[in-house]
Amino acid sequence: MQTLFEFYHDQVLYQVKANNFGKEQVFRNGQLVSEGRAFFSTSNDHRFLCPTHGPMRLYFKVSLKTAEVNYRLETSAALLCEGKTKAIPPKWLGKLEQKLSPEPEQPAVDATEPLATAQPVATTSNKSDRNWFRPLLVLGILLLKLSKSAGAIKAALAGTALAGWAWLFNLEFAISLILALLIHEYGHVYAMKRSGLKVKGIYLLPFIGGVAVSERAVSRWQDFKIAIAGPAFGTAGALVAYWLWLET
């Protein structure tokens, strides 16, 4: 957890901490008084109980462009304080702002300038456009040739899932999540093979999860075994990971 922002009121230090998973915690003189989550939001509202003032409400809104936060601390009867201070937004909020914020406008070319001075700029722009298009053309041809291969489709989906989760959070989280999904789906695959079904493979779906594809089960008992095997393998994998964490 990193400190998002902090301020003093009535000789009391208030701190708001957050992490890259959207979790937020409010501390009053080092004591945790409120926590919650704020995915895809730059503002939040925390309510907690104060020994002096009773029920209190802390509202804040983060400006990612200026790295500042506007906050307001109040009770049900009165406004205690409000102000603006520097903020350190979590990494995932900064990435989201970069993706959603519009690109800065390019300055207009002065019409009074000679045509000869504007011509090299246009030539450079055309060259950069061509250089940007060529790799995409080559990539499109390769994907077209590989699209008939199931292995290529699996690899493309896995790569897209890894890139998507890494963009939203970080690479370590993306790798851990994909490993957990693979362990879960392998449980389904193991039960499918034990039931004598032909398994077609595991497909990772970006921002959704994973799916194991096989022939249709012939009985409800097979359906039950296949369905329960995924959570069973996932639970075993989580216990092993927790044990390794305790040992290290």
Number of discrete helical segments: 5
Please give the CATH architecture of the largest domain. Answer: Beta Barrel
What would you call the quaternary organization?
single chain
Helix content: 40-55%
> What Rg, in angstroms, do the CA atoms define?
27 Å
Largest sheet: 4 strands, antiparallel
Terminal residue distance: 20 Å
The rough form would be described as elongated
Number of E-type strands: 10
What is the residue-mean pLDDT, rounded to a whole number? 76
Give an overview in words:
- The protein is 46% helix and 30% strand.
- The mean pLDDT is 76.
- The protein has two domains: 2-100, Lipocalin (Beta Barrel), CATH 2.40.128; 150-247, no CATH class.
- By secondary structure, the protein is an alpha+beta fold.
- The chain is elongated.
- It contains five helices and ten strands.
- It starts with a strand and ends with a helix.
- The chain has a four-stranded antiparallel sheet with strand order 1-2-3-4, with no helix packed on it. A four-stranded antiparallel sheet has the order 5-6-7-8, with no helix packed on it. A two-stranded antiparallel sheet has the order 9-10.
Topology:
Elements lengths: L1 E8 L2 E7 L4 E6 L2 E7 L5 E8 L3 E10 L4 E8 L3 E8 L4 H10 L14 H32 L3 H19 L2 H24 L4 E7 L3 E6 L5 H28 L1
Antiparallel strand pairs: 1-2, 2-3, 3-4, 5-6, 6-7, 7-8, 9-10
Question: In summary, what is this structure?
Answer:
The chain has 248 residues and is α+β, with helices and mostly antiparallel strands. The chain has 5 helices and 10 strands, in the order ββββββββααααββα.
